[in-house]
Amino acid sequence: MKVVVSCINFIRAKGLKHRQFQEFLSELESAHEDVLYYTEVRWLSRGRVLRRFYELLPEINAFLHSKDKTVPELIDPEWKWHLAFLTDVTEMLNSLNLQLQGRGKLICDMYSHIKAFEVKLALLLEQVKKHNFIHLPATHNLSAENPAVPFPAEKCVEALEMLKAQFGVRFRELHVNAKEIRLFQNPFVADIDEAQPSYQFELAELQNCDVLKDAFKPNSLIDFYAALPNDTYPNIKKHAMKMSTLFGSTYICEQTFSRMKLLKTQMRSRLTDEHLHHCLRLAVTRMEPDIQLLTSQMQAHSSH
Fold it and tell me: Which of 34-43, 194-203, 216-225, 282-291 is most confident?
């Protein structure tokens, strides 16, 4: 990644070189018009930067050569293997990252995505050991273009094993609480015998209620649990409240910062912290106030 960032910074650091590179790509009728900047803070940029850099590798190497800058890694066959492999794996991680960042993601949704990725990772590990790159497009293309160049299987397999181990460590608590998550996700298929004693009678009542079964599928989990009678299912509702507080906050944070950027404009003459707080609450909330009802309860002019 250091080589990629170094080359991109060399091209884009000065306006003249940047314009010359864009003109160079235009003359070659390249599919892309520019390289992308890499930003450490925005992790998703890594996959896009690597993909663009890999696709423009011949053009970048030729441009750097014209500027008397030699980067030996760009012509190293083994380094190209690593670049292609890193590009594919990073794009997989980007896809997972986007799945986890969606709006209204509950713990059960995120756990499903994590489990699916771990299965994909295990499958990919076995396939890479056999030099099967069917799910790695950049690596597969490089293999077809340079069949004589040996694939560094040992290092790539080691990288996948490290990634798999990291997932096991970082998401260990999800697997430990898998039964609790599955109970929250679908209480109608939960095993009553394996459930905690405080849930067993309530689950028996719930799983044999046809009305609630019909109401489960069309409604969201939050709406379904909110509609459950408190007297009949107190423990299941308490469990649902605990599980519903475990949600992905990335979307809310990104949305809040975007709204704050729009609110803090030069057109405002004054913006206090309290005013900004109220504006942000209104901007990011999903509640829709009934304006007509609120105004009907207010007196337009005070009586004299």
Answer: 194-203
From CA 214, how far away is CA 191, in angstroms rounded? Answer: 20
Outline where 187-264 has alpha helix (H). 197-207, 210-216, 221-227, 234-244, 250-263
With H, G, I as helix, E, B as strand and everything else as coil, classify residue 106.
Answer: strand
Percent of the chain predicted with pLDDT > 90: 38
Residue with tokens 């713990």: 107
Q: How does DSSP assign 140-160, residue by residue?
A: HHHHHH-TTSPP-HHHHHHHH
Residues in CB range of 187: below 8 A, 6 or more apart: 203, 206, 207, 236
User: What is the rounded distance in angstroms from the CA atom of residue 82 to the CA atom of residue 94?
Assistant: 18
Q: What pLDDT digit, counting tens, does each position of 78-114 carry? A: 888 999 999 999 999 988 988 888 777 889 999 999 9
In DSSP terms, 240 is beta-bridged to none
- Packing angle, helices 250-263 and 273-284, rounded to 10: 130
Q: Alpha carbon 205 to chain centroid distance?
A: 38
pTM of the model: 0.76
| Residue appearing with tokens 């005013």 | 275
User: Letter for the amino acid at 112?
Assistant: S
* pLDDT band at residue 33 using 50, 70 and 90 as cut-offs: low
